[in-house]
User: Fold this.
Amino acid sequence: MAEPEFTATGVRIARGLRSLTRAGRVRIREGRLELLTSYGSEIDSAPVRTVRASRPWLGPDGRARADLNGTRYLLTLGDRDPSPGEPGPPAAHRFIEAVREASERGG
Assistant:
């Protein structure tokens, strides 16, 4: 099995005003974006080339918007860097860049 290209844990995933999970996971692996609950159940997934990821107009830096299969999700990602001790961009920015890079690779 291939290693994930992007993984974030402890993600709040919401659809509209409804929170689906407060400790979910977002993963890009093998050309697919997966939104998972904290227990690993799939909320939604789609080929990364069909996903639109962006930053909301308003709100803190730790948020990203993802459109999958015609459904808009609001993701609140923590600012923790996966490599302790090394500075990096906020997790939402890393997520948006990971989606962009994976879709450019033909994912």
Remarks:
- The radius of gyration is 13 Å.
- The mean pLDDT is 86.
